[in-house]
């Protein structure tokens, strides 16, 4: 049976509609999932919504609805977005689902059995926006001397009786684990941040709440619901069949990759591994913290009014153009900036003018001049040289994707496209048609092979367009397949004036 590959995104808070950051994370994870499927792995890909916590309660209250109603309404937008963007997830999990409650309570019980949970009184700073506790020393000063979290969100002083998790006990085991698994946290810059944080000392973590009831009930402790991050992180285990399906768990756990944004690396590389160590469950193999998307270099926020709806971008420019742009232009792991102009420029340069044009002129030439089928023809060394160049470009894409260097992979792929365009210009099949038809056939046959390889390679990035293209090319070595006059697959995009420009 194929080697399993379990990949997850963060699960998103459905306290509002999805934004482009959510779309970006899903698209990156989807490209990796599709790539791994192509490599023959048995992929399980999970995304979903994180529905508990105080932020949901407060947003729902402001809208005069229950948290469950809010979650039901908003979660559906995330699901629809996933479908629209061709996200090939195997499960869209909602943390309000029954099997997830079971999983969260089961891991809680294991941590309790270890003696790692105790009841005490919590007093400290809490940010509802981040759903996170902060120590005094971590806070920064905002305008007018107001205390803010390191993420710049408001904090409030909270006091209540809660369950605590003995996080402090795991400081050394975590440091040992990071040392033994240098690839656990990527990229390197995030790993260094986490090391510094853990080396600075860990305090026990408050893991239950009594001031509201929208959460997973703490087993045997009426009035307590779990701190939202305890149940949120456990979603990854729920998807792998924990605790009921031992066979499935053995297959998909530990997860190969948790793909998340840089703001939540601490939860995934400190709290989550500590919970798992406490529960005697294996730790995930890797956590990758991607960067943030900026709108023309600016952080997006509701108050600035520059939040972009990914569905609108996908509708205006096409899903594959958006996917291609995000994966090609944002160096994976770093922050990236986007604008309508940048999307249009990139999609036109690479997809429409280079790859699309290459396919279009080759296919229409064959349809028009060769009755849709090329013969063996007379080979030349130039043909083998081109196919080697294309294979080299595709192999570089594969290596880069294996290493999560997504933009470098796409860039390497483009060198194969450029090689084809140089080849077609140098070989000039339109001249050979009159002077040397045998040679013309060999040139066109070489181009078909090269375009097919490039199309298969780029499929994880632009799945719908690549599939359409491959259908137009027909399978390799099928003499009966007739190439029809093609319809362009990568239309030239026009810049759409945005309303607020
Ligand atoms: O943090 N660019 O949910 P969330 C890129 N529920 N990525 C961005 C982004 C941006 N501008 N803004 C946010 C949560 N993200 C928790 C996760 S996981 C067990 C629980 C990313 O809806 C962010 O970094 O606030 C995170 O990975 C994801 O979107 C969901 O953010």
TrEMBL record:
Q: What Gene Ontology terms describe where this protein resides (cellular component)?
A: cytoplasm
Does the keyword section mention ATP-binding?
A: yes
From the UniProt record, list the reaction(s) this protein catalyses: tRNA(Met) + L-methionine + ATP = L-methionyl-tRNA(Met) + AMP + diphosphate
Q: Where is this motif: 'KMSKS' region?
A: 299-303
| Keywords assigned by UniProt, alphabetized | Aminoacyl-tRNA synthetase, ATP-binding, Cytoplasm, Ligase, Nucleotide-binding, Protein biosynthesis
What InterPro entries does the entry give? aa-tRNA-synth_I_CS (IPR001412), Anticodon_Met (IPR041872), Met-tRNA_synth (IPR014758), Met-tRNA_synth_2 (IPR023457), Methionyl/Leucyl_tRNA_Synth (IPR015413), MetRS_core (IPR033911), Rossmann-like_a/b/a_fold (IPR014729), tRNAsynth_Ia_anticodon-bd (IPR009080)
A UniProt-annotated Pfam family: Anticodon_3
Q: Which GO terms describe its molecular function?
A: ATP binding; methionine-tRNA ligase activity
Q: What is its EC number?
A: 6.1.1.10
Q: Which SUPFAM superfamilies match?
A: Anticodon-binding domain of a subclass of class I aminoacyl-tRNA synthetases (SSF47323), Nucleotidylyl transferase (SSF52374)
The record places domain Methionyl-tRNA synthetase anticodon-binding at 376-476
- Keyword Aminoacyl-tRNA synthetase included in the entry's annotation: yes
**Domain of life, source organism:** Bacteria
User: What family is reported?
Assistant: Belongs to the class-I aminoacyl-tRNA synthetase family. MetG type 2B subfamily.
Quaternary structure note: Monomer.
Protein name, entry field: Methionine--tRNA ligase
Organism name: Sphingomonas trueperi
User: Coding gene?
Assistant: metG
